Structure formats: structure tokens, C-alpha cells
Amino acid sequence: MPFALRLRHADGSERVLPLDDLELPVVIGRDSEQAQVVVPDSQASRAHCRLDILDTGLQIEDLGSRNGSWLNSERITRMPFRPGDKLRVGSTHIDIIVVAPPGGDPYEGRVIAGFELQEAIGRGVSGVVYRARQTALDREVAVKVLSESWRNDPDKLAAFMEEARRAGRMSHPLVVQVHDVLQVEGECVLVMELMEASAADRLRDDGVFDEGDLLRLLRDTGRALAYVAGQRLVHRDVKPANILVNSDQVWKLADVGIAIALGDDGRAIQGRVFGSPHYVAPEQARGGPIDPRADLYALGATAWHLAVGRPLFNGTARQVVSDHVNTPIPDLRTAAPGLNRGTIDLICRLLAKSPDQRPKDAQTVADEADKLISSGARTPLPAHRARRRRRRYR
What we know:
Layout: E1 3-8, E2 14-18, E3 26-29, E4 37-38, E5 49-54, E6 57-62, E7 69-71, E8 74-76, E9 78-80, E10 87-89, E11 92-98, E12 111-112, E13 115-124, E14 127-134, E15 139-146, H1 148-151, H2 154-168, E16 178-184, E17 187-192, E18 197-198, H3 199-206, H4 211-230, E19 233-234, E20 243-245, E21 251-253, E22 260-261, H5 282-285, H6 293-308, H7 317-326, H8 332-335, H9 341-350, H10 362-374
Parallel strand pairs: 3-4
Antiparallel strand pairs: 1-2, 1-11, 3-5, 5-6, 6-9, 7-8, 7-10, 10-11, 12-13, 13-14, 14-15, 15-17, 16-17, 18-20, 19-22, 20-21
Helix pairs in contact: 4-6, 4-10, 6-9
């Protein structure tokens, strides 16, 4: 894997020097006659430090510099220099990065704040999610690296940080855990619990859900939504891409940081219409006040999609939203003839146009789904669905 030195100067400029292009050992300093890697930095000595390669790897050695060589915030004389370490020479910051081959991913293999990024497992407009290893604890996590356009937009960055902090305050076994959010090394990263796949991934890879798997998703997500409602919040964007499964086949709710708080009257006032058109509740689509029962409708629309293989309504975003408000739902018995009556009844009640006609709360949904599972509703999880996957986040 090709490595390079990345030099970040006080004026904000940056240089990347592939190690293969350097004839080690090299001297780093501000005098071009004494140093092979020149840093235009008045706080650096003419010959500040030496980078060499030994049998054990790279080593950095201070050459008696006036202001010292600082590795990971400690003044050093001679120390190993590894990916993830931060070297400061004067006001110039130097680290080792992985250089992607043409067409490759520049982050794969890179270490950011102690997290070794491995393969990309999800891509979206706001950034890329990687399977990663937290080196200090030797555990697998998911790390989202915010895209450059988002981290350089003050409003988007502030919103992302606030959503991450809100999600980090959530603590429930059926809510995807957020471990940390960091602004380091010029990057903004969100560290999360690692999951196996989303319901959207499973639908795409394996086709429609069997009834047992569908009911487990309804039970687990219902319990997660009951917790969210207990925090006096409405999630607002329940959909297949935001319901993830782990290696134990437990479904968990993601993106809880986008939830909106309920007022004293038990309703949330929307500043703008939020949610995904294929799953949005009628009252949410109208832009009026909403309560946790809007999430129940979205869960019902999600269950319909997973059971039938297509969304409840199709068309342009405007037409789909209009259909949620005005059009009766199609006959689920015809669309998914393999489902038993109890499961069909539960999904159809979730999809009632009026919130008052839906189940009274998410815990009721979870309890009903659990009873249907206990009654032997349909098949166990097929073995081929238990295999590991790498598409986990969107």
C-alpha cells in the first residue's frame, strides 16, 4: 500500500510527498541546502529532523532543533513514526497518509484519530461510511467521514455536529449507538456502532422479506421508536435505509439525531416538511403538527415496501406525497398473499390516514409483532440471509 508524507503549513497550504519518491534518509528543515524536504517555516531549524527507515519501520530523529520536534504533542529525540502519528516541525504539521491508486479511495487504509479506515460500506451526499478498526481498543466500528463540501459549509457542518451530539445522547440497545464525533486532521468524522446491512440492502440483495423477518423488524423497530417517543421526540425519517441489522440479526434504528422535540401539548411543530416521500405520514406531508404516530405510519410504509417489494405509492415525489394524503392504500392481501391475517391487519392499521386510527403507540406495535412471532407466523430466517455483508449505511 503506497504511503506519503502530508505537510500542512501554517498558511493553510498542503503538500503530499510519496515516500517512494524520497531517498531515505531525508532531512526536514527550512534550508534547501541542508534539507531534502524543505518547510518554509521560520519556526523550523535549517536542519530540523531526519526521517529514516529501519527494519522496524520509519523513525524520526530530532537534529538539535531550536524549537524541538513534537510527535503526538510530546517533544522527542528519536521515535518510531507510524501512520496516525502527528509530527510538528515549527508550525508545520506532518503525518503519514495512504495514497490511493488512480481511481481508488484516498481514505481506505488511512488512520484518523486512532481509527484505521478499511473498506467503504456506504456513500451518501454528506459523506462516506467506512468499516474501521479502533486501534486502541482493537474493536470494529463504523466511521463516517464528512464530505469536503459539507465540512466547508458552516451551516451544514453545524447541523451535522448537532445531530451527532443528539444521537450520542441516546442510549438504547435497539438504537444504533454513536460513540463520538471528532474534528481532527482537517476532517470531521462520526464514529458509530458497526452494523451488517440496512433493510434496504436486504431487500435489494434478497428480495421481499419473509414474514418472520418482517415481524422481527417491526418488533425491534417498534421498541426503538417507543424509546424515542419516551424521550419526547419524533424521528421523522423512518425508512428501510434507516433500519439496520447486526450480526445477531437484531434490527436497530439509525439517524436518531434528526429527531424533533415535542412541545408541551405533545406535538412537534415542523419548520419545514421533513422525511422521505415514499414513507411520509399524511399529517407530516401537510406540514402540520406531528406526534410519534407519524413514525408509526412511516414504519407501516416501510413494512409494506419490504413485504411487497415496491413502495406503497410510486410516481414523482409530489405525486407520491399527494397519494399518502389522499389515496386509499392498495389491497395488501393481493399484493402480498403469503402474509397471514394478523400481520396484514397490523400493517394496514399503521397505514391509517388518521393518526387516531393507528395503534396507540410504538410499544403496542412491538407487542403485537412479538405475539405474531410467538404464534409461529411464517418462516425462520433463511441461512443465506445470515451471511455477512458490507453495505451497511446510506
